[in-house]
Design brief:
Blueprint: H1 2-21, H2 28-34, H3 39-45, H4 49-75, H5 85-91, H6 93-96, H7 100-111, H8 116-122
Helix pairs in contact: 1-2, 1-7, 2-3, 4-5, 4-7, 4-8
Length: about 120
Amino acid sequence: MAASRNDTKILDTAEASAAHVGWSGLKLATVARAATLSTRPLLDRFSGRSELAAELWRQRLVDAFVEAAAEALASAGVMGDRPDREAFTEAMTCFVAPDDRLAAFTELLAVGPFDESLQTQVD
């Protein structure tokens, strides 16, 4: 049970930290400190920043992205026979001017292909 609580606390803190400082600024020691944990439980669970980022991707960010994209497509009527271009353009503004969470996801999406250790964790 403690591991599950720690995972939730770690992922909550890592998500907030990534939204604030970006993936390049995300440090395990900073996440541990902000989650009020010692570094050891974090390192016992995640071998490094890439593994933490991959878990955050799987547990939180993929769903957020899919939900935002589905909402944008549904509101634009893209699933219908004739898409409403104006509605679609308006709906997609969340990707042009994303909130901090979506910006962190987008950054991870952009750097993922160039981070070999992250690719290993996601594959």
